[in-house]
Amino acid sequence: MPLSDVTILVPGGIHERVLARLGETFRLVRIERPDAALITGDLRASVRGVASVAGANAAFIDALPNVEIIANFGVGYDGVDARHAATRGIMVTNTPDVLTEEVADTALGLLLNTLREFSRAERWLRDGRWVKDGPYPLTRTTLRGRKIGILGMGRIGKAIARRLEGFGVPIAYHNRRPAADVAYPYFDTLEGLAREVDTLISIMPGGAATEKMIGRAVFEALGPDGVFINIGRGSTVDEEALAAALADGTILAAGLDVFAREPHVPRAMLDLPNATLLPHVGSASVHTRNAMADLVVDNLVAWFSEGRPLTGVPETASIKKR
User: How far apart are CA 281 and CA 313, in angstroms?
Assistant: First the structure.
């Protein structure tokens, strides 16, 4: 069957480059959102692939009996029920590597901005306060003398660590297990790592296994000079506990690019002067998003033309094309 006869479904919005390339290569069909109730009889029969940034739960997957592959836009794929897809013999792919360096760059920028308050200093200048009130106040925090802990020493964690080496700061990490190719000190518990460092950078994926794993106990272990940076998933943090820790001085500051209920940010967080907040821009450059879009489509092309994915996720690594 030529690729132009293969139906690919896009539920909800997705990068325009994905849509353009899918439209040139496959038979593209769109629906408003990944909702099983929107799957018509024609779609049930014809859809063989899904390209999605909005996820795909078990009910949605089951509503598409002929689907062979779900291509997720993003390295994090917690919105796709990959375990259920595997039981159905469905391949799931994501977009690793192509966004690693961009997200690592963002993590360092967020860390420095949180410590040195660059965005607030710019606002001071723009509001005319440099002329009226004099120089911006000296920042309480600096990267000098800090000890960095990385939660999640995967591709992005390693890229962040490489950058931090250039700043001359000691680095340690926590994973489910030690990384074979990493020489930094390893801590087998998150709280143990937090007690040893004063700056914690999280790159943890979302999902049930990591839900609210970063909470009050971790912040207490990090201590009153502690700085928390999250570039992974908002669901990994107990946001109420974080807001309280920032408000009562349990930790000193936080920089967040991700939140549990995006785009909604807790009011308590918005009101905190010691929280630096970004609207999930970790990979948000034209260059990197185009590369992610290409990988989404290239996975679909490889699957339907060669019977293999380029970047399948671990849960579906054993799936073979029917």
Answer: 23
- pTM for the structure as a whole: 0.93
Show the CA angle centred on residue 149, arms to residues 160 and 269, nearest 5°: 90
Question: CA angle, corner 269, sides to 267 and 271, nearest 5?
Answer: 70
299-312 pLDDT tens trace: 999 999 999 999 99
Q: 322 exposed, middle or buried (CB, 10 Å; 0-12, 13-18, 19+)?
A: exposed
Q: Is 176 exposed, middle or buried (0-12, 13-18, 19+ CB in 10 A)?
A: exposed
Residue 322 has pLDDT above 90, yes or no: no
How far is Cα 209 from Cα 314, in angstroms, rounded to an integer? 15
Extract the tokens encoding 33.
């959102």
Give the H or E element holding residue 276: strand 275-277
Q: What is the mean pLDDT of residues 190-213?
A: 96
Angle at alpha carbon of residue 116, lines to 111 and 119, rounded to 5°: 90
- How many Cβ atoms are within 10 Å of 125's Cβ, its own excluded? 11
Q: Domains (ranges, CATH) in the chain? A: 3-96+286-316 (3.40.50.720), 100-277 (3.40.50.720)
What residue has token string 């994915």?
309
Give me the active site residues, please.
Answer: 233, 262, 280
Among candidates 172, 206, 203, 205, which has minimal Cα distance to 189?
172
What 3-state class would DSSP assign to 201?
strand
Token reading at 168: 């001359």
Cβ 99 vs Cβ 311: under 8 Å? no
Q: Strand, helix or coil at 63?
A: coil
